[in-house]
Design a protein that fits this description.
The complex is a heterodimer.
Chain A (H helix, E strand, L loop, with lengths): L1 H7 L5 H29 L3 H5 L13 H9 L10 H31 L5 H10 L5 H15 L5 H25 L3 H10 L3 H9 L4 H17 L2 H6 L6 H9 L8 H26 L11
Helix pairs in contact in A: 2-14, 4-14, 5-8, 5-11, 5-13, 6-8, 8-11, 11-14, 13-14
Chain B lengths: L3 E10 L2 E11 L4 E5 L6 H9 L6 E6 L2 E2 L10 E4 L11 H11 L4 H15 L14 H14 L4 E5 L7 H18 L2 E6 L2 H7 L2 E6 L2 E6 L1 H6 L4 H6 L6 E10 L2 E7 L5 E5 L12 E6 L4 E2 L11 E13 L3 E8 L2 E8 L9 E7 L4 E3 L10
Parallel strand pairs in B: 3-8, 3-9, 6-7, 7-8
Antiparallel strand pairs in B: 1-2, 1-4, 4-5, 9-10, 11-12, 11-14, 12-13, 14-20, 15-19, 16-17, 16-19, 17-18
Helix pairs in contact in B: 2-3, 2-4, 3-4
């Protein structure tokens, strides 16, 4: 991929090139500035922030704000730090992403390779779910979760996010599999593979790029979700809600250094997913499957 | 009853009928080619034999067992697809044995079958590669190997050579023919290329608009086409079709035509029965190779007729020289020896092999067989 981009790049003069790099550098600095501010201020004692310059490097380096944010800070009424909520978030995000991606892949497989009467309608309706605002479903969802006995639990949140995510994951996988040669599926049928065997052995191994897209999208959305978390979280609230409770507390001194550390902690997992999964994003696993 | 029986088979999509009462019996070891222009239903018929498309009416039987509604994997067939359809994530070896694995054949047996076929197709060195690392010709071999490993009753080929470049296509055509002569397997082969059909097949079914126009050996199809469609579809350049009238001269039926200058000419028919058509218009069909320079005419033919005509265009094609002329107001092509001395605009005496000429009824477009 990167090789191809270089080949097609327009060759430019040295001066233009320098100008391009300079502009890019300026933008990069501008975008990195908030991260810098968060980083340096999370490593200072509170006094340095309240009495001085936000942009300056710490004169006294400390990890105390991080420790406090992780394990001792006052979240709501309990001095637990963000740790239990972080664990809640992980327990919610991992199954929700996995389940919604798998269901999306199966839906995409059925909608493209096992077409049935009215399949475009079914797909259209699933697509429609991508456009429904969160607020509209809050009350019906609360009723359903209550009836299922899942209100205020991690499984309840998983269910909400899976239901909400299927529309997107189905869209991704359907469009990806639409360009997957149907002759391969037919060949596998003649070879004697059944519905799940074809999915597992033929389609899934080449679904890497789109699975990564789906995982990144779902992970970011579910991890960053606040509304569902605060509405249905109950006693097992996710990280986003805890961070809000930490930062927005109206009593006591505002510990900005702890807040910064907490915010970085909340952002780290999505950052991690982007950096790790992004590498697999561009790998063209389909190369040479049909004719070359 | 044949080895593969297609009896009265029809196919409809809603109200649209795409195959009309197809009846073909294929004997064991036969190489049947389904040929026709795109949209004629040949691939649909092949997919119905494979079980990938449902059968609307009639039945298909393999080895005497009716397979309507039988799952593709249980018909003991193997198919080579136009795109080869090799599984991109598996090695060549895994690709070839996937079918055996799915049918629960134990590993040692699979390996033995793989080794045999790999040797036969000379692809032993490729077994650990992925399809993406193979050239077009190699993929083609692997696709055939995957079919051969299964040792099926019937092989189905869906335009297997159309993705190859011209030279490789000719080579692979010979390979397929060799393979068939060696293994004597039953093959149904779909193509739109009439040369492939003529060279490979033991029998050809020429299809158009969902009907089988003619079913016969390559020689029958080529020499005695059933109708105008078969006559013009098979053969390259296409058969010359010119309007003519049947006239009697010295008690023999002749085709009355006009040359490029409008001068009337007659060519004696070899079929005395055409006398019944005296005075009526017909369409005269003559293959390009039946119109030659006099030295190049078929010496074994009993009926070479001279035709003096003005040459319009000369196309040297290496092995042959093609001359275009006007006959009865239509363009006709003559296939002459490469070094035949003829120039455009020149009046030349051609030799027409009327033994090979055919006549068509202009209204029904059927060949006149009387």
């Amino acid at each position: 991929m990167s090789v191809a981009t270089q080949d097609t790049a327009v060759s430019t003069g040295r001066f233009t090139r320098a100008l391009i790099y300079l502009t890019l550098l300026l933008f990069a600095v501008f975008y990195l500035l908030p991260l810098y501010v968060m980083g340096v201020n999370s490593l200072k004692p509170l006094a340095e922030i309240t009495g001085g310059n936000m942009m300056a490097l710490p004169s006294e380096w400390t990890l105390d704000p991080w420790r406090s944010a992780w394990s001792t800070a006052q979240i709501g009424v309990e001095p637990t730090g963000l740790k239990p909520y972080f664990i809640n978030s992980i327990l919610m995000v991992v199954p929700a992403v996995a389940i919604s991606t798998i269901i999306g892949a199966l839906n995409g497989y059925v909608l493209t390779k096992w077409r049935f009467r009215g399949d475009t309608w079914v797909f259209g309706l699933m697509l429609f779910s991508c456009f429904i605002p969160f607020q509209i479903v809050l009350i019906p969802m609360a009723v359903v979760l209550g009836k299922l006995g899942l209100a205020g639990t991690v499984p309840g949140l998983i269910l909400v996010h899976v239901v909400y995510g299927i529309g997107f994951t189905t869209l991704y996988f359907r469009n990806y599999y639409a360009s997957f040669p149907t002759e391969l599926v037919r060949a596998a049928m003649i070879d004697g593979a059944g519905f799940f065997r074809i999915f597992w052995r033929i389609l899934l191994p080449v679904s890497g790029p789109i699975a990564v897209v789906s995982v990144i999208w779902q992970f970011t959305n579910i991890w960053n979700d606040f509304l569902f978390g605060v509405s249905f979280g109950g006693t097992s609230q996710p990280m986003t809600v805890a961070l809000n409770n930490l930062v927005q507390s109206s009593t006591g001194v505002k510990e900005y250094n702890v807040h910064f550390a907490g915010a970085i902690l909340a952002a780290l997992p999505t950052l991690f997913v982007y950096i790790v999964a992004g590498r697999y994003f561009v790998r063209g696993l389909m190369a040479g499957s049909v004719k070359g | 009853m044949g080895f593969l029986d297609i009896r009265n088979v029809t196919k409809s999509y809603g109200p649209v009928q795409v195959l009309h009462r197809i009846d073909i019996a294929v004997e064991e070891g036969e190489f049947l080619v389904l040929v026709g222009p795109s949209g004629c239903g040949k691939s649909t018929l092949l997919n119905m034999i494979a079980g990938l498309e449902g059968i609307t009416g009639g039945e298909i039987a393999i080895k005497g067992r009716v397979v309507n509604g039988v799952h593709p994997s249980k018909r003991n067939i193997a198919m080579v697809f136009q795109s080869y359809a090799l599984y991109p994530n598996m090695t060549v070896g895994q690709n070839m044995t996937f079918g055996l694995e799915m049918h629960g054949v134990p590993k040692p047996e699979r390996d033995r079958a793989l080794a045999d076929v790999a040797k036969l197709l000379q692809i032993e060195t490729l077994l650990d590669r992925k399809p993406g690392q193979l050239s077009g010709g190699q993929r083609q071999r692997v696709a055939m190997g995957r079919a051969l490993v299964r040792n099926p009753d019937v092989f189905l080929f869906d335009e297997p050579l159309s993705n190859l470049d011209a030279k490789l296509r000719v080579d692979m055509r010979t390979e397929i023919k060799k393979l068939h002569q060696k293994l004597r397997t039953t093959i149904v082969y779909v193509t739109h290329d009439q040369i492939e059909a003529l060279t490979l097949s033991t029998r050809i079914a020429v299809m158009n608009k969902g009907h089988v126009q003619q079913l016969g050996t390559p020689k029958e199809i080529y020499d005695t086409p059933a109708n105008l469609f078969v006559a013009t579809f098979m053969g390259s350049p296409a058969m010359n079709i010119v309007p003519a009238t049947v006239v009697m001269e010295n008690g023999h039926p002749h085709a009355a035509i006009t040359d490029a200058d409008g001068t009337p000419r007659t060519l004696r028919f070899s079929q005395p029965n055409l006398a019944q058509w005296q005075g009526k218009p017909i369409l005269l069909g003559i293959r390009p190779e039946a119109i030659t320079d006099p030295e190049g005419a078929d010496r074994k033919s009993g009926n070479i007729q001279p035709l003096t005509n003005r040459v319009a265009v000369i196309e040297p094609a290496g092995a042959d020289t093609f001359a275009t002329m006007a006959v009865s107001g239509r363009d006709a092509i003559a296939r002459m020896r490469a070094d035949a001395s003829v120039a455009p605009g020149q009046t030349f005496e051609f030799a027409v092999n009327m033994e090979k000429a055919v006549a068509f009824d202009p209204t029904t477009e059927e060949r006149i067989t009387t």
